[in-house]
Amino acid sequence: MSPPLAAVRRRSLPRPSVRTQRRLTRLLQAVLVAIVAYGIVYSRPKAITNGCLALAVTASPALLERNYAVPLDPWLGLWVTLAVLAHTLGSAGLYATVGWWDHLTHALSATIVAGVGYTVTRALDVHHDDIQLPRRFAFAFILVLVMAFGVVWELFEFGLDVLAARTGVDMPLAQHGLDDTVGDLLFNAAGAVVVAAFGQAYLSGTVDALLEVLERGSG
Amino acid sequence: MGDDGEPTDRPDVLARLLREGRRNAVLAWILVGALGVVFVGSVLDRDVGWSVFVAATGAIVLVPPVAARSWWAMLPWELLALALAPILTRGLAGSDVGTVGASLSVAGFALVVAVELRAFSSLRLTRWFAVVFVVCTTLASAGVWAIVRWTLDRWAGTTLLVTPEGSADAANEALMIEFLWVTLAGLAAGLLFDAYLSRRDAQLRRRIEAVIRR
Q1: By C-alpha distance, which of A186, A163, A166, A185 is closest to A174?
Q2: What's the pLDDT tens digit per position in B123-163?
Q3: Is the CB of A124 inside 8 Å of chain B's CB atoms?
Q4: Which site in A40, A119, B10, B186 is 20 to 30 Å from B82, CA atoms measured?
Q5: A158 CB neighbour count, 10 Å cutoff
Q6: Does the pTM exceed 0.90?
Q7: What are phi and psi of B118, to 5 degrees?
Q8: Is the Cα dihedral A209, A210, A211, A213 positive or negative?
Q9: What is the pLDDT of residues A96-146, one digit of tens each?
Q10: Which of A121, A119, A91, A120 is nearest to A105 (CA)?
Q11: Cβ separation A132–B2 shorter than 8 A
Q12: Do A144 and B176 touch (CB under 8 A)?
Protein backbone atom coordinates (compact mmCIF):
# COMPACT_ATOMS: atom_id res chain seq x y z
CA MET A 1 0.00 0.00 0.00
CA SER A 2 1.36 3.43 -0.85
CA PRO A 3 1.93 5.65 2.20
CA PRO A 4 -0.10 8.71 1.05
CA LEU A 5 -3.17 6.57 0.42
CA ALA A 6 -2.80 4.98 3.83
CA ALA A 7 -2.71 8.41 5.42
CA VAL A 8 -5.94 9.38 3.68
CA ARG A 9 -7.58 6.14 4.80
CA ARG A 10 -6.52 6.64 8.39
CA ARG A 11 -8.18 10.04 8.37
CA SER A 12 -11.43 8.70 6.96
CA LEU A 13 -12.62 7.43 10.36
CA PRO A 14 -11.64 8.81 13.75
CA ARG A 15 -9.31 6.36 15.41
CA PRO A 16 -9.38 6.46 19.21
CA SER A 17 -6.36 5.78 21.38
CA VAL A 18 -5.45 2.22 22.27
CA ARG A 19 -6.87 2.55 25.77
CA THR A 20 -10.19 3.91 24.49
CA GLN A 21 -10.28 1.19 21.88
CA ARG A 22 -9.84 -1.43 24.58
CA ARG A 23 -12.67 0.14 26.63
CA LEU A 24 -14.98 0.28 23.61
CA THR A 25 -14.24 -3.36 22.86
CA ARG A 26 -15.09 -4.30 26.44
CA LEU A 27 -18.33 -2.27 26.22
CA LEU A 28 -19.37 -4.01 23.01
CA GLN A 29 -18.52 -7.37 24.51
CA ALA A 30 -20.67 -6.44 27.52
CA VAL A 31 -23.60 -5.80 25.14
CA LEU A 32 -23.04 -9.23 23.60
CA VAL A 33 -22.92 -10.85 27.04
CA ALA A 34 -26.20 -9.07 27.83
CA ILE A 35 -27.71 -10.57 24.66
CA VAL A 36 -26.58 -14.04 25.76
CA ALA A 37 -28.02 -13.44 29.25
CA TYR A 38 -31.31 -12.32 27.69
CA GLY A 39 -31.32 -15.55 25.70
CA ILE A 40 -30.78 -17.66 28.81
CA VAL A 41 -33.37 -15.87 30.92
CA TYR A 42 -36.09 -15.78 28.24
CA SER A 43 -35.04 -19.17 26.79
CA ARG A 44 -34.18 -17.93 23.33
CA PRO A 45 -31.49 -20.29 22.00
CA LYS A 46 -30.95 -18.07 18.95
CA ALA A 47 -29.80 -15.18 21.11
CA ILE A 48 -27.43 -17.49 23.01
CA THR A 49 -25.75 -19.00 19.93
CA ASN A 50 -25.53 -15.73 18.05
CA GLY A 51 -24.22 -13.82 21.04
CA CYS A 52 -21.60 -16.50 21.70
CA LEU A 53 -20.58 -16.57 18.05
CA ALA A 54 -20.16 -12.79 17.99
CA LEU A 55 -18.15 -12.91 21.22
CA ALA A 56 -15.90 -15.50 19.59
CA VAL A 57 -15.50 -13.18 16.61
CA THR A 58 -14.55 -10.22 18.82
CA ALA A 59 -11.96 -12.43 20.49
CA SER A 60 -10.48 -13.81 17.28
CA PRO A 61 -7.80 -11.15 16.65
CA ALA A 62 -6.54 -11.71 20.18
CA LEU A 63 -6.61 -15.47 19.77
CA LEU A 64 -4.68 -15.06 16.57
CA GLU A 65 -1.73 -13.69 18.50
CA ARG A 66 -2.47 -15.64 21.69
CA ASN A 67 -2.45 -12.30 23.42
CA TYR A 68 -5.66 -11.35 25.18
CA ALA A 69 -4.70 -7.71 25.65
CA VAL A 70 -5.11 -7.00 21.94
CA PRO A 71 -8.28 -4.96 21.34
CA LEU A 72 -10.59 -5.27 18.39
CA ASP A 73 -11.02 -2.28 16.15
CA PRO A 74 -14.02 -0.51 17.72
CA TRP A 75 -15.78 0.16 14.41
CA LEU A 76 -15.55 -3.47 13.42
CA GLY A 77 -16.74 -4.45 16.88
CA LEU A 78 -19.70 -2.09 16.63
CA TRP A 79 -20.52 -3.49 13.22
CA VAL A 80 -20.50 -7.08 14.50
CA THR A 81 -22.57 -6.19 17.56
CA LEU A 82 -25.14 -4.37 15.42
CA ALA A 83 -25.60 -7.40 13.18
CA VAL A 84 -26.03 -9.73 16.14
CA LEU A 85 -28.48 -7.27 17.68
CA ALA A 86 -30.43 -7.13 14.41
CA HIS A 87 -30.58 -10.91 14.22
CA THR A 88 -31.55 -11.28 17.87
CA LEU A 89 -34.31 -8.67 17.55
CA GLY A 90 -35.43 -10.48 14.40
CA SER A 91 -35.71 -13.79 16.21
CA ALA A 92 -37.55 -12.04 19.02
CA GLY A 93 -40.36 -11.19 16.62
CA LEU A 94 -39.32 -8.68 13.98
CA TYR A 95 -38.71 -11.38 11.33
CA ALA A 96 -42.37 -12.32 11.52
CA THR A 97 -43.74 -8.77 11.56
CA VAL A 98 -41.35 -6.76 9.38
CA GLY A 99 -40.92 -8.30 5.93
CA TRP A 100 -37.56 -6.75 5.05
CA TRP A 101 -35.93 -7.30 8.46
CA ASP A 102 -34.71 -10.71 7.32
CA HIS A 103 -32.99 -9.15 4.29
CA LEU A 104 -31.44 -6.42 6.42
CA THR A 105 -29.95 -8.97 8.82
CA HIS A 106 -28.75 -11.19 5.99
CA ALA A 107 -27.05 -8.27 4.29
CA LEU A 108 -25.49 -7.03 7.54
CA SER A 109 -24.13 -10.43 8.54
CA ALA A 110 -22.93 -11.12 5.00
CA THR A 111 -20.79 -7.97 5.06
CA ILE A 112 -19.39 -9.02 8.43
CA VAL A 113 -18.51 -12.49 7.20
CA ALA A 114 -16.80 -10.79 4.28
CA GLY A 115 -15.02 -8.34 6.58
CA VAL A 116 -13.86 -11.02 8.99
CA GLY A 117 -12.79 -13.24 6.11
CA TYR A 118 -10.76 -10.43 4.64
CA THR A 119 -9.22 -9.40 7.95
CA VAL A 120 -8.23 -12.98 8.82
CA THR A 121 -6.85 -13.46 5.31
CA ARG A 122 -4.73 -10.34 5.56
CA ALA A 123 -3.56 -11.16 9.05
CA LEU A 124 -2.47 -14.60 7.80
CA ASP A 125 -0.80 -12.90 4.89
CA VAL A 126 1.16 -10.47 7.05
CA HIS A 127 1.91 -12.75 9.99
CA HIS A 128 2.86 -15.95 8.22
CA ASP A 129 6.08 -15.43 6.34
CA ASP A 130 5.33 -18.48 4.22
CA ILE A 131 1.90 -17.30 3.12
CA GLN A 132 1.69 -14.39 0.73
CA LEU A 133 -1.56 -13.37 -0.90
CA PRO A 134 -1.51 -11.09 -3.91
CA ARG A 135 -3.31 -7.76 -3.49
CA ARG A 136 -4.31 -7.71 -7.14
CA PHE A 137 -6.55 -10.73 -6.54
CA ALA A 138 -7.86 -9.65 -3.14
CA PHE A 139 -11.32 -9.32 -4.64
CA ALA A 140 -11.25 -12.95 -5.79
CA PHE A 141 -9.99 -14.10 -2.39
CA ILE A 142 -12.75 -12.30 -0.50
CA LEU A 143 -15.36 -13.77 -2.83
CA VAL A 144 -13.94 -17.29 -2.48
CA LEU A 145 -13.72 -17.13 1.32
CA VAL A 146 -17.15 -15.61 1.84
CA MET A 147 -18.90 -17.93 -0.59
CA ALA A 148 -17.17 -20.92 1.00
CA PHE A 149 -18.21 -19.75 4.45
CA GLY A 150 -21.76 -19.29 3.18
CA VAL A 151 -21.89 -22.93 2.03
CA VAL A 152 -20.42 -24.14 5.34
CA TRP A 153 -23.00 -22.05 7.15
CA GLU A 154 -25.87 -23.63 5.19
CA LEU A 155 -24.48 -27.09 5.99
CA PHE A 156 -24.34 -26.10 9.66
CA GLU A 157 -27.98 -24.97 9.56
CA PHE A 158 -28.94 -28.18 7.79
CA GLY A 159 -27.10 -30.20 10.44
CA LEU A 160 -29.05 -28.39 13.16
CA ASP A 161 -32.29 -29.11 11.27
CA VAL A 162 -31.48 -32.81 11.05
CA LEU A 163 -30.55 -32.85 14.74
CA ALA A 164 -33.78 -31.04 15.62
CA ALA A 165 -35.84 -33.53 13.62
CA ARG A 166 -34.12 -36.45 15.37
CA THR A 167 -34.26 -35.10 18.90
CA GLY A 168 -37.26 -32.80 18.81
CA VAL A 169 -35.19 -30.02 20.38
CA ASP A 170 -35.90 -26.49 19.11
CA MET A 171 -32.80 -25.25 17.30
CA PRO A 172 -31.64 -21.62 17.04
CA LEU A 173 -31.32 -21.69 13.25
CA ALA A 174 -33.48 -23.34 10.67
CA GLN A 175 -33.60 -23.63 6.92
CA HIS A 176 -36.87 -22.77 5.27
CA GLY A 177 -36.61 -24.60 1.98
CA LEU A 178 -34.53 -24.09 -1.13
CA ASP A 179 -35.36 -20.42 -1.76
CA ASP A 180 -34.22 -19.50 1.74
CA THR A 181 -30.93 -21.36 1.28
CA VAL A 182 -30.14 -19.84 -2.10
CA GLY A 183 -31.27 -16.45 -0.78
CA ASP A 184 -28.67 -16.78 1.97
CA LEU A 185 -26.00 -17.62 -0.59
CA LEU A 186 -27.05 -14.67 -2.78
CA PHE A 187 -26.83 -12.29 0.16
CA ASN A 188 -23.44 -13.71 1.01
CA ALA A 189 -22.21 -13.08 -2.52
CA ALA A 190 -23.65 -9.56 -2.52
CA GLY A 191 -22.09 -8.85 0.89
CA ALA A 192 -18.73 -10.04 -0.38
CA VAL A 193 -18.95 -7.79 -3.42
CA VAL A 194 -19.96 -4.78 -1.29
CA VAL A 195 -17.10 -5.30 1.15
CA ALA A 196 -14.61 -5.90 -1.62
CA ALA A 197 -15.68 -2.78 -3.50
CA PHE A 198 -16.38 -0.21 -0.78
CA GLY A 199 -14.87 -1.70 2.35
CA GLN A 200 -11.38 -2.54 1.17
CA ALA A 201 -10.01 0.89 2.01
CA TYR A 202 -11.52 0.84 5.47
CA LEU A 203 -10.55 -2.74 6.16
CA SER A 204 -6.98 -2.07 5.13
CA GLY A 205 -6.99 0.59 7.83
CA THR A 206 -8.46 -1.91 10.30
CA VAL A 207 -5.78 -4.47 9.69
CA ASP A 208 -3.03 -1.89 9.75
CA ALA A 209 -4.31 -0.58 13.08
CA LEU A 210 -4.48 -4.11 14.42
CA LEU A 211 -0.94 -4.82 13.27
CA GLU A 212 0.28 -1.56 14.79
CA VAL A 213 -1.13 -2.59 18.13
CA LEU A 214 0.23 -6.11 17.78
CA GLU A 215 3.68 -4.80 17.06
CA ARG A 216 3.52 -2.37 19.95
CA GLY A 217 2.26 -5.16 22.22
CA SER A 218 4.91 -7.69 21.30
CA GLY A 219 7.77 -5.21 20.86
CA MET B 1 -1.05 -8.31 0.14
CA GLY B 2 2.11 -9.59 -1.39
CA ASP B 3 4.17 -7.34 -3.53
CA ASP B 4 2.49 -6.34 -6.71
CA GLY B 5 5.66 -5.86 -8.67
CA GLU B 6 4.19 -6.24 -12.14
CA PRO B 7 7.46 -6.26 -14.05
CA THR B 8 8.94 -9.00 -11.90
CA ASP B 9 6.05 -11.42 -11.77
CA ARG B 10 5.00 -11.34 -15.43
CA PRO B 11 8.00 -13.25 -16.81
CA ASP B 12 7.75 -15.60 -13.84
CA VAL B 13 4.16 -16.46 -14.78
CA LEU B 14 5.12 -17.07 -18.37
CA ALA B 15 8.10 -19.15 -17.36
CA ARG B 16 5.95 -21.26 -15.10
CA LEU B 17 3.24 -21.78 -17.67
CA LEU B 18 5.51 -22.27 -20.62
CA ARG B 19 7.88 -24.56 -18.82
CA GLU B 20 6.52 -27.69 -20.43
CA GLY B 21 6.77 -26.18 -23.89
CA ARG B 22 4.92 -27.27 -26.98
CA ARG B 23 4.31 -30.90 -26.04
CA ASN B 24 2.37 -29.74 -22.99
CA ALA B 25 0.40 -27.19 -25.00
CA VAL B 26 -0.59 -29.75 -27.64
CA LEU B 27 -1.77 -32.25 -25.02
CA ALA B 28 -3.63 -29.50 -23.16
CA TRP B 29 -5.35 -28.34 -26.35
CA ILE B 30 -6.47 -31.91 -27.06
CA LEU B 31 -8.15 -31.86 -23.64
CA VAL B 32 -9.74 -28.50 -24.45
CA GLY B 33 -10.97 -30.02 -27.72
CA ALA B 34 -12.58 -32.88 -25.81
CA LEU B 35 -14.20 -30.29 -23.54
CA GLY B 36 -15.50 -28.55 -26.66
CA VAL B 37 -17.04 -31.81 -27.88
CA VAL B 38 -18.74 -32.26 -24.50
CA PHE B 39 -20.04 -28.70 -24.74
CA VAL B 40 -21.50 -29.18 -28.23
CA GLY B 41 -23.02 -32.47 -27.10
CA SER B 42 -24.70 -30.89 -24.09
CA VAL B 43 -26.02 -28.01 -26.21
CA LEU B 44 -27.49 -30.51 -28.68
CA ASP B 45 -29.03 -32.37 -25.74
CA ARG B 46 -30.56 -29.04 -24.63
CA ASP B 47 -28.97 -29.65 -21.26
CA VAL B 48 -28.86 -25.98 -20.20
CA GLY B 49 -27.26 -26.44 -16.77
CA TRP B 50 -24.51 -28.73 -17.97
CA SER B 51 -23.79 -26.49 -21.01
CA VAL B 52 -23.33 -23.50 -18.72
CA PHE B 53 -21.03 -25.46 -16.41
CA VAL B 54 -18.88 -26.83 -19.25
CA ALA B 55 -18.68 -23.38 -20.89
CA ALA B 56 -17.57 -21.82 -17.58
CA THR B 57 -14.92 -24.50 -17.13
CA GLY B 58 -13.69 -23.92 -20.68
CA ALA B 59 -13.49 -20.18 -20.07
CA ILE B 60 -11.43 -20.73 -16.91
CA VAL B 61 -9.09 -23.18 -18.67
CA LEU B 62 -8.52 -20.68 -21.50
CA VAL B 63 -7.53 -17.80 -19.20
CA PRO B 64 -3.74 -18.45 -19.45
CA PRO B 65 -3.44 -18.47 -23.26
CA VAL B 66 -5.70 -15.42 -23.54
CA ALA B 67 -3.90 -13.50 -20.81
CA ALA B 68 -0.46 -14.36 -22.18
CA ARG B 69 -1.67 -13.95 -25.81
CA SER B 70 0.09 -17.16 -26.68
CA TRP B 71 -1.22 -20.51 -27.86
CA TRP B 72 1.52 -22.25 -25.90
CA ALA B 73 0.68 -20.85 -22.46
CA MET B 74 -1.42 -23.71 -21.11
CA LEU B 75 -1.70 -25.25 -17.67
CA PRO B 76 0.26 -28.46 -17.11
CA TRP B 77 -1.66 -31.09 -19.07
CA GLU B 78 -1.55 -33.79 -16.39
CA LEU B 79 -3.23 -31.42 -13.94
CA LEU B 80 -5.78 -30.41 -16.55
CA ALA B 81 -6.49 -34.07 -17.36
CA LEU B 82 -7.13 -34.81 -13.70
CA ALA B 83 -9.31 -31.73 -13.14
CA LEU B 84 -11.36 -32.28 -16.30
CA ALA B 85 -11.64 -36.07 -15.92
CA PRO B 86 -15.05 -36.06 -14.18
CA ILE B 87 -16.52 -33.64 -16.74
CA LEU B 88 -15.10 -35.51 -19.73
CA THR B 89 -16.20 -38.87 -18.32
CA ARG B 90 -19.71 -37.63 -17.85
CA GLY B 91 -19.85 -35.92 -21.22
CA LEU B 92 -18.14 -38.50 -23.44
CA ALA B 93 -19.58 -41.58 -21.75
CA GLY B 94 -22.97 -39.90 -21.84
CA SER B 95 -23.94 -41.38 -18.52
CA ASP B 96 -25.36 -39.53 -15.60
CA VAL B 97 -22.67 -39.53 -12.92
CA GLY B 98 -24.97 -38.51 -10.09
CA THR B 99 -24.11 -36.40 -7.09
CA VAL B 100 -20.60 -37.78 -6.56
CA GLY B 101 -19.58 -37.21 -10.16
CA ALA B 102 -21.05 -33.71 -10.13
CA SER B 103 -19.14 -32.95 -6.91
CA LEU B 104 -15.90 -34.15 -8.47
CA SER B 105 -16.61 -31.96 -11.50
CA VAL B 106 -17.02 -28.91 -9.26
CA ALA B 107 -13.82 -29.84 -7.40
CA GLY B 108 -12.00 -30.14 -10.75
CA PHE B 109 -13.24 -26.69 -11.77
CA ALA B 110 -12.07 -25.28 -8.43
CA LEU B 111 -8.70 -26.96 -8.80
CA VAL B 112 -8.14 -25.15 -12.11
CA VAL B 113 -9.12 -21.83 -10.47
CA ALA B 114 -6.73 -22.46 -7.55
CA VAL B 115 -3.84 -23.43 -9.82
CA GLU B 116 -4.36 -20.33 -11.97
CA LEU B 117 -4.58 -18.00 -8.98
CA ARG B 118 -1.29 -19.47 -7.84
CA ALA B 119 0.32 -19.31 -11.27
CA PHE B 120 -0.86 -15.81 -12.17
CA SER B 121 -0.15 -14.00 -8.95
CA SER B 122 2.50 -13.73 -6.31
CA LEU B 123 0.44 -16.08 -4.13
CA ARG B 124 2.56 -18.16 -1.77
CA LEU B 125 0.99 -20.84 0.40
CA THR B 126 2.00 -23.14 3.19
CA ARG B 127 1.03 -26.78 2.77
CA TRP B 128 -1.96 -26.71 5.15
CA PHE B 129 -3.18 -23.42 3.75
CA ALA B 130 -2.97 -24.77 0.20
CA VAL B 131 -5.39 -27.53 1.17
CA VAL B 132 -7.72 -25.08 2.96
CA PHE B 133 -7.53 -22.77 -0.03
CA VAL B 134 -8.61 -25.45 -2.52
CA VAL B 135 -11.43 -26.59 -0.20
CA CYS B 136 -12.63 -22.96 0.00
CA THR B 137 -12.42 -22.55 -3.78
CA THR B 138 -14.45 -25.76 -4.21
CA LEU B 139 -17.12 -24.73 -1.70
CA ALA B 140 -17.33 -21.27 -3.25
CA SER B 141 -17.73 -22.77 -6.73
CA ALA B 142 -20.48 -25.06 -5.42
CA GLY B 143 -22.23 -22.04 -3.90
CA VAL B 144 -22.04 -20.05 -7.13
CA TRP B 145 -23.16 -23.11 -9.09
CA ALA B 146 -26.20 -23.46 -6.82
CA ILE B 147 -27.08 -19.79 -7.40
CA VAL B 148 -26.66 -20.20 -11.17
CA ARG B 149 -28.92 -23.29 -11.25
CA TRP B 150 -31.52 -21.63 -9.04
CA THR B 151 -31.54 -18.59 -11.35
CA LEU B 152 -31.84 -20.81 -14.45
CA ASP B 153 -34.72 -22.70 -12.83
CA ARG B 154 -36.45 -19.44 -12.15
CA TRP B 155 -35.89 -17.58 -15.41
CA ALA B 156 -35.16 -20.24 -18.02
CA GLY B 157 -37.72 -22.77 -16.89
CA THR B 158 -35.18 -25.53 -16.19
CA THR B 159 -35.54 -28.09 -13.42
CA LEU B 160 -31.94 -28.26 -12.20
CA LEU B 161 -32.56 -27.88 -8.48
CA VAL B 162 -36.28 -28.52 -8.10
CA THR B 163 -37.55 -31.52 -10.03
CA PRO B 164 -41.21 -31.34 -11.12
CA GLU B 165 -42.21 -34.18 -8.81
CA GLY B 166 -40.10 -33.09 -5.82
CA SER B 167 -40.88 -30.48 -3.20
CA ALA B 168 -38.74 -27.45 -2.34
CA ASP B 169 -37.72 -29.11 0.93
CA ALA B 170 -36.57 -32.23 -0.89
CA ALA B 171 -34.59 -30.05 -3.29
CA ASN B 172 -32.99 -28.27 -0.36
CA GLU B 173 -32.02 -31.57 1.20
CA ALA B 174 -30.58 -32.80 -2.10
CA LEU B 175 -28.53 -29.60 -2.37
CA MET B 176 -27.19 -30.05 1.17
CA ILE B 177 -26.17 -33.65 0.43
CA GLU B 178 -24.47 -32.37 -2.70
CA PHE B 179 -22.63 -29.75 -0.60
CA LEU B 180 -21.42 -32.52 1.71
CA TRP B 181 -20.04 -34.49 -1.22
CA VAL B 182 -18.52 -31.32 -2.65
CA THR B 183 -16.71 -30.74 0.65
CA LEU B 184 -15.21 -34.24 0.48
CA ALA B 185 -14.30 -33.79 -3.19
CA GLY B 186 -12.73 -30.42 -2.36
CA LEU B 187 -10.65 -32.02 0.38
CA ALA B 188 -9.46 -34.66 -2.09
CA ALA B 189 -8.65 -31.94 -4.64
CA GLY B 190 -6.81 -29.97 -1.94
CA LEU B 191 -4.63 -32.91 -0.94
CA LEU B 192 -3.95 -33.56 -4.62
CA PHE B 193 -3.04 -29.90 -5.16
CA ASP B 194 -0.64 -30.06 -2.21
CA ALA B 195 1.00 -33.29 -3.38
CA TYR B 196 1.29 -31.92 -6.90
CA LEU B 197 2.75 -28.57 -5.83
CA SER B 198 5.36 -30.09 -3.53
CA ARG B 199 6.46 -32.44 -6.33
CA ARG B 200 6.61 -29.63 -8.88
CA ASP B 201 8.40 -27.28 -6.50
CA ALA B 202 10.98 -29.96 -5.71
CA GLN B 203 11.49 -30.49 -9.45
CA LEU B 204 11.80 -26.78 -10.07
CA ARG B 205 14.27 -26.40 -7.20
CA ARG B 206 16.42 -29.20 -8.60
CA ARG B 207 16.45 -27.52 -12.00
CA ILE B 208 17.34 -24.14 -10.54
CA GLU B 209 20.11 -25.70 -8.48
CA ALA B 210 21.43 -27.46 -11.56
CA VAL B 211 21.55 -24.14 -13.40
CA ILE B 212 23.25 -22.37 -10.50
CA ARG B 213 25.90 -25.06 -10.16
CA ARG B 214 26.80 -24.78 -13.82
Answers
A1: A163
A2: 667 778 888 888 988 999 999 989 998 898 888 877 777 77
A3: yes
A4: B10
A5: 21
A6: no
A7: -75, -40
A8: positive
A9: 777 787 777 777 777 766 666 666 666 666 667 777 666 656 677 777 877
A10: A91
A11: yes
A12: no
